[in-house]
Design goal:
This protein has twelve helices and 13 strands. The chain is α/β, with parallel strands linked by helices and about 325 residues long. It is elongated, with a radius of gyration of 24 Å. InterPro entries: AAA+_ATPase (IPR003593), ABC_transporter-like_ATP-bd (IPR003439), P-loop_NTPase (IPR027417).
Length: about 325
Amino acid sequence: MCRAPARREASGHDSSDSPDRGAAMIDVARLTKQYGAKTAVDGVSFTVAPGRVTGFLGPNGAGKSTTMRMVLGLDRPTAGSVTVNGRAYRDSPAPLREVGALLEARALHPGRSARDHLRWLAASNRIPVARVDEVLGLVGLEAVAGTRVGKFSLGMGQRLGIAVALLGDPPVVVLDEPVNGLDPEGIRWVRTLARRLAAEGRTVFVSSHLMSEMALTADHLVVIGRGRILADCSMPDFIAEHAASFVRVRTQGGQVADVLRGAGADVTPVDGELHVQGLDAAAVGELVGDKGLYLHELTLVRSSLEDAFMTLTASSVEYTARDGAELAGATR
């Protein structure tokens, strides 16, 4: 079952003392962040395990970025704890060699070249300078390595940010909206990269608003809404639990609907077709065939990640726009 995990108590001690925390993972325990009277993150607990891509989903304002910032020591929790590789990120002697992160890709000096930016980071974390050209080649920026990053496009900035995340060859990689500004080739490259990193046994934690892309990338999902965990489960379990599939049937007349309802199916007419639940496509075809009736279409429609996400987070959306029809009516 795909359920929000029960809240657990924060450990209150250095988790590096525990032998089972030695593996490369992110462990969040009752993490809370308040800004005055507003609670941005409210007692969330989850684990990002190695060997799989964990997707981090939620509507705008759900607390995703705040949670990621606390994971990386950029924001101090009001309560709770978060460890990376068994200790607080701020306690790492060489952070880039333990955790590679992309949060704000353009947070760099615009007058510095891509190569010099990476060289500076490599020197500060005792990373061999040869690694700089390796990651520039990996992300496809060799030809512009000497160009000032202030002249980079959004997509080029994203690639440089990913290069920074990979610079220390870390066991944990955290990517916030990594495909933002990338073209289709770049999006596919990021997807392949994330899955390859996970296949190598690394811990990969990725947030994105692109549901179609996350469906192709993530193995496991953590979904947050209004600062609380709504789901923590595998991709198939999440879709199965939060969005139902149905059989699409097109036919003439109402006899087919009557037959299917007589067999206990839930039949809903939608725009000249029938949406059938409670029977699979084969059963629908056999029932209709036994009655000598004809079908024009019989298709299993599988639920998408977007359907499941919208169903689960409907009550957690902070800002809801009016649709075009409502807007047109309001202006008449």
